[in-house]
């Protein structure tokens, strides 16, 4: 089934009844870093923290009275589940969500809080999908696919209309790809309104399913990624054909770059973003020469990041910037030696976070000891100055790098 601009305009009219447009904001500091004029579409500000509400709403509004009474079913481990549950409950439609058995409890709890009935089944999303179809057939429920549905694609495509209305001179759109619903819808809208616009898709390096599928190459996806929202092993059938026709290229980004993008969006733009939501910015940071001099738009498509993952990324970002470092310092194994080093580090402007005092496991003389000190510093130059001062005072010191 083909999807055109008029389908997306009809979807936009439906969306407008319930959802206000999200802001499209300039990002001047990120623009400086990437050599672009960059704009961010903040879908992370939606009630459920994701763009998925758009497609879910359009699909739910399409149901006739009998279908609405009977209810809907979806399979999802995250944002689609919440979008369907929230709007179905709001519209008085019973919603069942099938999630893999090992879905984190916080996601299950959040989906239930939006009014969805959660069924846990299988080890993977594929298992959950098979089970969901079986339940749909048995109970007469309407299946709401997360991406491979014309109405879902049209709903997501409304983002493209809003972005070009907000910034008509966009040269390039950089859009995350999971199953492909988001980029397919945006591509239909954007290419119809502005045929010369470039559209670049972004996948996680560990899950290159769309890129490999379109290249007629074997698809191999595995591993833990912080961009779990786009960690899709089997892209949509409808979406892949739209992407084949309308998307100019697909790039892959690694885990370190995704981490850097999340960290940069928090520190530079003050936006809390999940891994999938940061994928477009990751592509820009990874290869700025590709986009230099262009007016670029990307979708911050979700903000639902686990608090523990976020805390880890923030600390690792500080380590990469050498604002938190680990120094190994040699000192005599004598009373008061540790206190002298601590005083020295304080006088040098470092703030001690942790100290590990080793006499037995490091290769040092019996009357010496090594201490590993985790230290807060101002910047790399401050670290170099502290190490130089320690060595000049007779304390052998070296920087221990923990994060690449």
Give a concise summary:
This protein has 404 residues and is α/β, with parallel strands linked by helices. The protein has 17 helices and 14 strands.
Verbal overview:
The chain has three domains: 214 residues, 3-Layer(aba) Sandwich (Rossmann fold); 90 residues, Rossmann fold (3-Layer(aba) Sandwich); 80 residues, ACT domain (Alpha-Beta Plaits, 2-Layer Sandwich), CATH 3.30.70.260. 46% of the residues lie in helices and 19% in strands. The protein contains 17 helices and 14 strands. The strands form three sheets. The chain has a six-stranded mixed sheet with strand order 1-2-10-7-8-9, with helices on both faces. The chain has a four-stranded parallel sheet with strand order 5-4-3-6, sandwiched between helices. A four-stranded antiparallel sheet has the order 12-13-11-14. The radius of gyration is 25 Å and the shape is elongated. It is an enzyme of class 4 (lyase).
Bin the helical content: 40-55%
Number of strands: 14
- State the separation between the terminal residues, measured CA to CA: 47 Å
Anisotropy-based shape: elongated
Structurally, the number of domains stands at 3
Return the structural class: alpha/beta
For the record, the CATH architecture of the largest domain stands as 3-Layer(aba) Sandwich
Q: How much of the residues is beta strand, in percent?
A: 15-25%
Level-1 CATH class name of the largest domain: Alpha Beta
Organism: Skermanella stibiiresistens SB22
Keywords: Lyase, Pyridoxal phosphate
Family: Belongs to the serine/threonine dehydratase family.
Protein name: Threonine dehydratase
């Amino acid at each position: 089934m083909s999807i055109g601009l008029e389908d997306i305009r009809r979807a936009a009219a439906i969306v407008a009844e319930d959802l206000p447009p999200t802001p499209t904001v300039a990002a001047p500091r990120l623009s400086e870093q990437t050599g672009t004029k960059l704009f961010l579409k903040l879908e992370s500000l939606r009630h459920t923290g994701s763009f998925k509400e758009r497609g879910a709403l359009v699909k739910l509004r399409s149901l006739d009275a009998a279908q609405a009474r009977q209810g809907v079913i979806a399979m999802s481990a995250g944002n689609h589940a919440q979008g369907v549950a929230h709007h179905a409950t709001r519209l008085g439609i019973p919603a069942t969500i099938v999630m893999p058995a090992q879905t984190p409890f916080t996601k299950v709890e959040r989906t239930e809080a939006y009014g969805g009935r959660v069924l846990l089944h299988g080890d993977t999303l594929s298992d959950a999908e098979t089970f969901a179809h079986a339940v749909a057939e048995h109970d007469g429920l309407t299946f709401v696919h997360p991406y491979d549905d014309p109405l879902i694609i049209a709903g997501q495509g409304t983002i493209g209309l809003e972005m070009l209305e907000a910034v008509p001179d966009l040269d390039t759109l950089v859009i995350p790809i999971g199953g492909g619903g988001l980029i397919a819808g945006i591509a239909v809208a954007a290419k119809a309104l502005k045929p010369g616009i470039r559209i670049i898709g972004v996948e996680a390096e560990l899950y290159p399913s769309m890129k490999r599928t379109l290249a007629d190459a074997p698809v191999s996806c595995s591993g833990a990624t912080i961009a779990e929202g786009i960690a899709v092993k089997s892209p949509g059938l409808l979406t892949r054909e739209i992407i084949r026709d309308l998307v100019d290229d697909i790039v892959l980004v690694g885990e370190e770059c995704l981490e850097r993008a999340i960290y940069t969006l928090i520190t530079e733009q003050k936006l809390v973003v999940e891994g999938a939501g940061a994928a477009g910015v990751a592509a820009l940071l990874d290869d700025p020469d590709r986009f230099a001099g262009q007016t670029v738009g990307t979708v911050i498509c979700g903000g639902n990041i686990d608090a523990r993952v976020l805390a880890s990324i923030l600390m690792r970002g500080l380590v990469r910037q050498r604002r938190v470092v680990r120094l190994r310092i040699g000192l005599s194994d004598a009373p008061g030696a540790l206190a002298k080093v601590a005083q020295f580090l304080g006088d040098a402007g470092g703030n001690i976070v942790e100290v590990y005092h080793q006499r037995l496991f490091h290769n040092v003389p019996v009357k010496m000891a090594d201490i590993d000190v985790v230290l807060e510093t101002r910047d790399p130059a401050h670290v170099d100055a502290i190490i130089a001062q320690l060595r000049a005072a007779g304390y052998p010191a070296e920087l221990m790098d923990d994060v690449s």
